[in-house]
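Sharing a chain and its predicted structure for anyone who wants a worked example. Both blocks are below, sequence first, tokens second.
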Amino acid sequence: MKMTTLKDLYIEELRDLYSAENQILKALPKMAKAATAPALKAAFEKHLAETEGQVERLVTIFKGLGEKPTGKTCKAMEGLVEEGSELISEKPAPAVLDAGLIAAAQRVEHYEMAGYGTVRTYAETLGETEAANLLQATLDEEGMTNKALTKLAETAVNDKALQGA
């Protein structure tokens, strides 16, 4: 797609996020299965349900734009997901695995927050108020997930990982 306007860039960035979210939909069940701490498993399962809603929001935005969400692969998310898969395949001690899964998930969350913050601002600039509100809702969820992961790491998982296997 040739990008000549902010709207073109906006659509391209939305496609990138759509690809990223769909990759996350595939990765989260694997992360939940690998997690050993019940609270971490639950956090991944909760975020899976949220991610499904986030994909639905993106589809709604694309419909409003008269565009299709497909056509782009988010290379950054491919790399982030691969890092999480590598961690799982290395089979670290359970608590260390949980700490690493949190780190991998937080890298994903930070990437998403950057992307959603950007497209929300584009939507506002373009006068796409409904889309901006939907994107802000997703940005809020990503921020809450990140905070929940931080709390889980600080109150339980990291101390167990510190103690070793």
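Comments welcome. Helices lie at 6-34, 38-65, 75-89, 94-125, 129-163.
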